[in-house]
Every structure is written in structure tokens, then in C-alpha cells.
Amino acid sequence: MQLPLFPLILLLKIIYMRALLFPETTTVRIFLLEFASVLIIWGLLNLKERTIWRHTANFLISTFCFANIMYYSFFGRLLNWEALGQLTYLSEVKSSIAEIFSPIYLLFYVDMLILLVWQLLNRKIYVDYFSTKSLKSAKYLKFDPFFKKKAVTTVTALALTVCSLSVVFYPDKGNKMAMTREVGILTTQGYELLTFWQKKHDKLAPTDKLTQATINRLKQIEPSSWPKYFGAASGKNIILIQLESIENFLINFTVDGEQITPNLNSLVQESLYFPYFYSQIGQGNTSDAEFITNTSLYPLADGAIAKELKNIKYPSLPRLLKEQGYVSLTFHANDVTFWNRDNLYPCLGFDKYYDKAFYQDEDPIGRWGSSDQVLFAKAFPILKELHAKRQKFYASLITLSSHHPYNLPESKHRIEIPDEIKGTLLGNYFLAVNYTDYTLGQFIQALKAHGLWDNTVLVVFGDHFGLRNTTDTFYKNTLSKLLGRDHDQLDSLNVPLLIRIPGLKAQTINNVGGQVDLLPTIANLLGLSLDKQLVFGQDIFNHSDNLLGFRFYYPEGTLITANHFHEAGSRYGFNIFNHKPYEDKEFFLQQENRVKSLLALSDSYLNYLAENQPLP
After folding, report:
1. Which of 53, 388, 390, 496 has the fewest CB atoms within 10 Å, counting from its CB?
2. CA gap 473, 486 in Å, rounded
3. What is the pLDDT of residue 155?
């Protein structure tokens, strides 16, 4: 018996994947752990001498490596099992897939191509590099079948023991990226698979802990007796604009003297501007942002909430406003079935939604739907009519034109960018954001021209990161040069928040906030009590301290306080104002535990709502 080529080829694929994910971190210990996981697969496949199983396993593992590298290239994290439920969306995001694809990723399949060509050229010769019989060895290396089976079983058992112990003794199992780096790619994936169903049925926090007092105690905040701005916008219309993929660094940012967001910059001069506001989305991305802002609840650790939880009557901003005589509308030019929004919007209590069926793909950009110019232009007459009827309204508008991969038609380019970034992801991003900013400016002018401006609170915020690509070194280096510093994790989380309130002077407020804080902040402006519902956010006008949790894209327990960002499992944090590292292991461990308790309470509350508040 001689060791076949299959485990060696598989090991090469895993090492290649490591080189793309974790350059310069493959030590001898890690190499041996990866080899052990490969031996487990090889041993299991040799329980039955069926070539089709081995070819299938090789293809699946190659695809696993390819898919993870593609996913990591954009999202900065590895695939999870919940992502399999998103395969139906592939046709919608194929332009983004094409943008992040690199031909070097096809090396995961090169062995299969070579084997196929070899077989076609040598049809009389059958090569099975998977089998333990594939390479003929000297007579003294040939063993009887019983010994071979026993040897394979022993090697597999030893490899399984090594991998199992590496998991048992690894302390930070909640940090998948760190665990993958330190324990091994296949071993971590095996652990994720074994615990997949367990996570679905984890014991939740007891419902007697589901009180606002418990939440406030974890966040270490006290309700304000005389909250600032309480009722400052009482009875006003609310327009909430969720900007696609727009990060806060773009405010007042110029490239070769060109402002990327001139209309947002002007709006800052008329608004209460929060430069330290953060996206808290989960796997549902934009749809999660809609959920968080309208409920003040956290997204799920894994999976899009609109897909995982259905037909629930959430306590929400639309329902809160309905009690005050408001009608709630939402506008989104994509198909309402994308991210199950046809389920999400009734759950949130919106009275009506306007999607692709309304916009009819007029002036489309990519596969996403009508341009932002059309989004605003067709929404405005509806809002104008409500205003004319003196019907108070809450309108949520979700932009699309600045969606990855930022392939804006040249006819919509409105600024000149340097030649070095023309046609690149970074250059296209600037052009797309500038176009969305232009359409926002047109919408604001329409509000002013037709009398809505002085009776409307305008809330503008970013939904999530725009430049999180972790493998494109060109854009990283170029953006660092333009920014004068590295574009880091904090920049990816940091999105703009502007709140324009009629009659209030413009001001920059450095209080830290997140998307979970929008509902209580708007409620305070309208003078509405939240005594009858739980909120995990806070009114950021009246609290300088905060504790924000982050999920999915970061390990559970990752947080932002009034001063620091900290990724769970690390000894360090970063000052959110100057991005400099800060070390206080004990402090961050305490904050991690508080955030984990907060997230567990949110999960328990979601479970409670699912069981007790179904949609009629």
C-alpha cells in the first residue's frame, strides 16, 4: 500500500486557501492540523472503494474553497451554513460576483481539469489518483486487504483525535475566523456543521429578564428625566432615507478637488450630524438595516431575520406612529420578494410598500431596479398628495444605485476622477455614491419647492459598508493614500447619520450611536413614550455613553462603547476618534460579557414574539 495522491492534492488546496486567507500564518503546527483533517476525509472515503464518491468529494471540497474565497473577498468573513439558504439570490448578485472574481481562484479545480484532459488523451488508461491502489509500489510494500483496512482506520482515528482535541482546547469558539486560522479550515467547518442544529436550539435567556430595566442596566444607562429635544418635532412628517453602501468618511471628502457628496455636505449645515454612528447589520444586510431601525432590536447571529423569522407582529416604529394617526409607506425599487421583504414589511406594520411592480424598472441600473433618480421622483407625488390632505406620514426610502459592484452607466457620471482609479472598484464607488448624492439633492429641492420641507423631519443614514473588500490591495493602498491613513474596520462600520428638524440649528453631535438607536431617537423627537415596548437602543441626543453590539461580520461580543471599538477575543481595542490601539484586557472582557448578555436578551425577545405575537 502506498499513500495515494488524493490527500496530497487536497492538502495543497487547503494550504492554497490558507495563503489567500491568512498569509504568513501557516506554521508547522497548523500544517499538521490541516493534514490531519485531510486524512480524516481520505479515510472516510476509503471505507468504500467507490470512485464516484471520491470525484464528488474532490469537486465539493474545491467548490467549498472557491466559494469561501469569493465570499471572503467581499464580506471579510467565511461562509456559514445559513448562507446555503441564500443561493436563490445568486442571479441577483451575479454582477457583484463577477467584480470580485479572480482567475487565480480557479486553481482549486485545476487537478480535475488535468485529469479530464489526461483521460481524453489516453482513453485506454484509467487513472484513479484517489484510491489507495492508484500507485503500484514495490512488492515489499504490498499488504493484504485486512491490514490495509486496519491501517486506514487507525490513521483516520488518530487524525480525528488530533482534530477533536484541537477544538476542545481552543478557547474562542465564537470567533470563526480566529478558530479557522488557529485550528484549521476543515476542522472548523466540521465543528460548525456539528453545532449548526445546536445553535438553533440554544437555551435562551429567561423571559423574566426581558425588561427595559434589565436592558438599561446592562448598557449602564439611566432614562433622562428631562430629555433634550423631547417633542421638538411633534406631529411632523418623517422621511427616513437609507443610503446604500455609503460610509461616513465620504462626508466632506474630496478627490482632486471634487466633492463626492456635495449635497450631503450641504445637508450637514442644516442638520444634527452624528459622525460616530455605526451600522449593525447581520447576514441580511440591507433588509437587516430596515429591521433594526424600525424595531430597535438586534439582528440574528446567523441568517437574515426576514428569512428566518416570519409572520411576527413586531413592536415597531410604524405601529407606534399609527397610534398617532400616521400612515407608513416604504419605497424600494427592487422586487419585494428579495430578502423576503414581502413578509418583512407586514411584520413591521407598514401600511403599503412600493417596489419593482410600481417602478416598472424605469431607467434601470444593473439588475437591482430603477435608478435613485426614479426612486425619489416617483415617490415624491405620493408624499406631496398626503401632505396636501394633511395626512401625517412616515416614509422609508431605500436607495439602490450605489450598490456593489458600483457599475454606473457613464451617462450618469457627474464628476471627474483621477485616471489611476478610473474603471476600478474604488473609482466606480466614488462615481456611484456621487450620483446617489445628486438624486438626494434633487429630492430635497422638491421638498423645499412644494412646502414639505418645513413640516418634515428628514433622517438620512447609511445602511452598511461600501468598501470592505479584504483582498484587493490596489484599492486599499490607493484609498489609504487619499485618506492619509488606513481604511480600517471602524471605517467599514461607520456610516453617516443626519437628522434635519425644522426650526433647530445645525450641530455636530459626537455622541456614539448605532442603527438600533434610531427608533428611540425618533420617538423622543416626536414626544412619544416607549413605556409599552422594549428597545435595545437609546435616544442618542440624551446619552453620551453607549454599548453597541455587532454580529455575523464580527465575533459575538464585538462592541463599541462611547470611546472604543473592540473585536471579541482580542486583548486590544481601538479609540474610535483617532483609530489608535488601546489595551485593557479586563475592561474589554467585562464589556464583552455585557454585550453577549444584551444580544442573548434580544434573541430571547425575538423568540418570545415569535411564539406570542403572530400576525393576524
Report:
1. 390
2. 12
3. 86
CA pair distance 46, 21, nearest whole angstrom = 30
| Radius of gyration for the alpha carbons in the chain, expressed in angstroms and rounded | 27
Is the CB of residue 305 less than 8 Å from the CB of residue 284? yes
Strand-pair partners of 493:
none
Count CB neighbours of 502 within 10 A: 14
What's the chain's length in residues?
A: 616
Closest by CA to 421, choosing from 479, 470, 491, is 479
Computed from CA positions of residues 402, 407, 413, 417, in that sequence, does the dihedral angle turn out positive or negative?
A: positive
Sign of CA dihedral 55, 57, 59, 65: negative
DSSP class of 205: P
The C-alpha atoms of residue 594 and residue 596 are separated, in whole angstroms, by 5
User: Tens of pLDDT along 177-226?
Assistant: 788 888 888 888 888 888 776 665 555 656 667 999 999 999 999 988 88
Q: 3-state DSSP call for residue 173?
A: coil
Q: Which residues contact residue 526 at a Cβ distance below 8 angstroms, ignoring those fewer than 6 apart?
A: 231, 233, 234, 235, 236, 238, 321, 324
- The closest alpha carbon to 320, from 350, 290, 354, belongs to 350
| Segments making up each domain of the chain, as ranges | 5-200, 234-516
Q: Is the pLDDT of residue 237 over 90?
A: yes
- Mean per-residue pLDDT for 340-344? 93
375: which 3 cell numbers? Answer: 426612486
Dist. CA 120–CA 134, nearest whole Å:
18
Burial class (CB in 10 A: 0-12, 13-18, 19+), 114: exposed
Cell 451554513, residue?
A: 81
- Exposure string of 225-247, with b = 16+ CB inside 10 Å and e = fewer, is eebebbebbeebbbbbbbbbbbb
| Grid cell at residue 52 | 464516484
For the chain, the average pLDDT equals: 88
Distant-in-sequence, close-in-space partners of 233: CB < 8 Å, separation ≥ 6: 457, 501, 502, 525, 526
Tell me the β-bridge partners of 572.
583
Three cell numbers at 592? 464583552
- Residue closest to 4 by CA, chosen among 201, 192, 163, 136: 136
Residue 587 vs residues 251, 544, 571, 594: alpha-carbon distances, Å: 32, 19, 10, 11
- Measure Cα distances from 563 to 215, 243, 274, 279, 574 in Å: 20, 25, 14, 16, 8
- Type of residue numbered 463: D
* 52 Cβ neighbours under 8 A, 6+ residues apart: none
User: pTM, whole model, 2 decimals?
Assistant: 0.86
Mind giving me the DSSP string for 268-327?
HTTSEEESSEE----TTTHHHHHHHHHH-----SSS-HHHHS-SB----HHHHHHTTT-E
